[in-house]
């Protein structure tokens, strides 16, 4: 391959000597299970990553979890550093796969936590000129926990420029340490001459390398090398391009561990979900219960209890007309009958005022107002293609189609910045069918749009964020399935796009979608419950996908074809069960997950100003710019404090 | 997706099939099935989904929904004794969804540019769609890529027509001479023919490319495999700060 062979052989030699000096029995200082050693195409290399002390020297050690991890491939792709005394003369292919990979911490320069499609990556960089690196994948995105543990045992200081970068300072040579620190503080060397300083310091050190690091070259090679046939795979290309469009997963984002904080060390395992509790649905909100909920003036005093009923069983169809106005924020829960009458009168007036605005547009004005004209034309086309199979909209010249058109046109004037976006007519249709009244429908629709308007962002940031959040949730709920998706070019979750854009409107019958939406509008049991609902559907479909070894296009096709086949009640039960599972391991959940389901992040540290300047160290600022905005919640949330948390909540869509 | 027999005919941009075998060679084996990726583009409401559904299931739904996201269907077509599997991709037309639509252009073998004959704007925008396709499909032979111009809704009353055949033909002349056909997904006129034209157009294009390719084949084989990038030459920028 390259000189890696030679180097690793040397490393083995050194290593053997070191190990014989210190004896085989090391002390495990901390460890983390279910960590994947990253190779360029194999994500099956699960193992335990730990910090082990042999004599005076500490090693980062990775052991494969199962002896049957294959592999010939592995052996070719990196040299496994052997602990065995007889290993000196082994060729690479003879290396025992169960033997650990050891990295002497003295030879490690730095490590970095970054956010990727496959959870979090923890990447160690070697100290020498090759600047090679090795990556471990924490697919449950909890590398920061391991990093915290390391901090208790190693001399680590956090980079001033990049909060995700940590420098290791295990070199026992005091002089070198001092030097390194002062250089780092002086910041004389810019990123463009990164290892000039290290060469310089190297001259001071005059120390031979001791151990294992030769293996790095080979590993790096394997990471960087892309087989030629990949380039021929268009499906792969489509998925890659889509990933760029969705622009989510490959940037370092989260994992703010406060630099100076040291935590108790212990054996930390990734959270394992307990079995899913059985959940049943309740009965819908009844007329009697609703009447009970109102006081003499008409205020809904215990609206929290009402929401609970709605979450568990929905609303009786006869009551929807009334209750939806509350759920959608048209009527405040604590308003009286009189206030509501007054409010409604004002709102109806306002509606017709706005309607008059577009109604009174002259042909000449329209001619010179292309933005308006284009949107009007698209609305006109789309209302003719919205739910026309339903009796309510059936037939030529159906007046209800005209009302649908009017409301969307008026919404255009109400929120011209957002405009009309395809999908809105789907969201409006069930409300109109229920309310019939044009102005009431408009205001309920406007309330619904408040919840989901980010779905229709010009830059699609809201959709991208949700797809990413879904991936994050799945990676904890079902790591195996998440890996399957990742490996099949579907980690971008694009196949859920239609589900999310119109909140499953295209997947369910009229009756079911009304039920589903009112459940979502209860805002229970947590923010983003609709994402757990996605996860619940996927949980029911994954076996089919596995069985057919479905790839990107097949997954997309399969999911598209699920329309009208999904059972709403069992899926809601499952989604609620998934939430219960997450809650039961609450304290072990990564912050990224906690934020999505409305829990306060754990690693919140208030007032850490260093965290405020988020740097894009990938050098390609333009491609990441969009990403930064879409991930704002997560980043801010991780920074902690109540303010950040509130912002996270505000960005919830349901 | 399809049986093992299917040979990917896609990706005119790449002349080498999986494993380094030239696609042209694989296609010579006529017992095999060729999979063609066909993308239908055009303004909202011109009938892209209807064309696809008419062709694939010979079905027309007056009240079909507008497309959200991306959908595709497969359909086999036999031409001159050879079976082609057409994988037809249908996308949402609104500008807002552009970034999520364009990745699917990659690897297309044929592109149907559609407009409605009763919608002048949709015809005006055909040039825009053509440009968008060429930008994102990464087609190297843009000038000769197999495009088909399809004027749908030809069933409408003559007084509602806003785009004449002559105008469309003029556009074709000025834009690399794609094939042109007027269709009606509603009454099934010319729909299958349009897709046949697409395949024939692709076949011709491929033959031309094959000839082009064969003259180059020796050169290509002498090209060394891509060199591996050593870690020493491509450092991970994420890890260097000092």
- The class by helix and strand makeup of chain B works out as alpha/beta
Which pair of chains has the greatest number of interface residues, and how are they split between the two chains?
A-B, 82 and 53 residues
Q: Report the sheet-strand fraction of chain A.
A: 5-15%
Beginning-to-end CA distance, first to last residue of chain B: 50 Å
CATH topology of chain B: Rossmann fold
CATH topology of the largest domain in chain A: Helicase, Ruva Protein, domain 3
Largest sheet of chain B: 7 strands, mixed
Oligomer state of the chains in this structure: heterodimer
User: Overall pLDDT of chain B, averaged?
Assistant: 80
The major pleated sheet of chain A works out as: 10 strands, mixed
| Number of spatially distinct domains of chain A | 4
**Level-2 CATH architecture of the largest domain in chain A:** Orthogonal Bundle
Shape of chain B: globular
Secondary-structure arrangement, i.e. CATH architecture of chain B: 3-Layer(aba) Sandwich
As a percent range, the share of strand residues of chain B is 15-25%
Using the coordinates above, name the CATH class of the largest domain in chain A.
Mainly Alpha
Low-confidence stretches of chain A: 1-23, 67-97, 182-232, 248-269, 606-654
